[in-house]
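Hello,

I think I submitted the cobalt (II) ion job twice by accident. Can you confirm which output corresponds to this input? Input:
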Amino acid sequence: MFEKVDHIGIAVRDLEKMVRIFRDSLGFEYNGEEEVPEQKVRTAFFPAGESKIELLQTTDPDGPIGRFIAKKGEGVHHIALSVSDIEAKIRELKEKGIEMIDEKPRYGAGGAKIAFIHPQSTGGVLIELCQH
Ligand code: CO
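Support: Only one job matched these inputs. Its output is below.
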């Protein structure tokens, strides 16, 4: 079972510029940024009720966000769903024939355990499972 949409990830070219827009112009609360070397990104989270917006800028043109922007430009990159037991969820999805990008959880921003489902299995949308 999914508890909620944890966050929506947006790939951006210039994190500082977008933080200024989200915080100062759009009026989001801002909780600071974090670098996640394992994902080759810098991220900033903006709470929106039960969910958050995550902005991601690559730290390496060859990282996943760098490649995404080169191919598609800036925009919505993934939707993250919270789960209470990510290992069990990955097992369950694989048993049902869902293709996982990550068969084992990885480290995500804020100390979360995360795993991505292959967009081939989800109508072209990249879905992140995350457990806090
Ligand atoms: Co995310």
